[in-house]
Amino acid sequence: MQILSLNEVSKKIQQKDILKNISFAVNEGEILGLLGPNGAGKTTLMQIISGLMLPSSGKVRILGTDAVQYRQKVKNLIGFVMQDNNMEREFTVKEALLSYAKLYKVKEAKFAVEKMIERFGMRKWQNRRIDRLSGGMARKAMIARALLAEPKLLLLDEPSVGLDPDVRLDIWREIEKLRCQGIGIIITTHYMEEAERLCDRIAILKEGKLMAVDTAVNLKHIMAKDNSEDLTLEKVFLRFIGREAF
Ligand SMILES: Nc1ncnc2c1ncn2[C@@H]1O[C@H](COP(=O)(O)OP(=O)(O)OP(=O)(O)O)[C@@H](O)[C@H]1O
């Protein structure tokens, strides 16, 4: 089942084409990695999918419903974890989760928050203020918050940037569990290791254009000069964006 489909999505900002005719789908239980150099349009695309920004043209559908026309209907189906910590700084972790659960009309909000605190190992610091959290704690709290409304599509904008390797592993394991629950996930990342370990398919953006979307194995085949060339994903990526060092 398709959780998300994008059909010819474009975005113009101040006469500049930021995204050009992007089409792809994300299926139930699939993790799609969105790769691209700085300024390629990854964050803009995530904002459009999340409904925070309108496309200039094209269709965004969540479980078949037009996400632009029926924004309210699809709002709870999407969880968005941004790059920056956008939780209320003076709230405690528990308060931040509870206020979000109420805003999104989560049933049995208190119980749902308790479950999430347990699941993400946040019990010891549940009463710590958001502005006193380490980067890893904040990222976990943001993912937990996004999952409270039980979204079908989770958008993670650079989920492991700046994190210790052990916290990064924790987050990867959580993401893999979500895939098993059938959630569709899009991750933007600059880490090839993360893309290769987690993602079922990889989409490559360059200057707002979708250069490819396929499995890492197929992308390697496409870009290999001959059958004997054994490419890393990094090399494949650099070839797609025309930046391979010779
Ligand atoms: N509000 C805006 N006004 C003008 N230009 C914008 C705006 N938002 C984004 N852009 C431009 O759109 C392009 C894509 O930006 P975007 O942040 O989506 O790229 P990105 O792939 O997420 O980059 P990064 O990897 O650095 O996060 C950039 O050239 C950026 O300058």
TrEMBL record:
Pfam families: ABC_tran. The keyword Transport applies. Keywords: ATP-binding, Nucleotide-binding, Transport. One of its GO terms (molecular function) is ATP binding. Gene3D superfamilies: P-loop containing nucleotide triphosphate hydrolases (3.40.50.300). Residues 4-232 form the ABC transporter domain. Belongs to the ABC transporter superfamily. PANTHER family: ABC TRANSPORTER ATP-BINDING PROTEIN (PTHR42711), ABC TRANSPORTER ATP-BINDING PROTEIN NATA (PTHR42711:SF5). This is Uncharacterized ABC transporter ATP-binding protein YbhF. It comes from Megamonas hypermegale. The gene is ybhF_2.
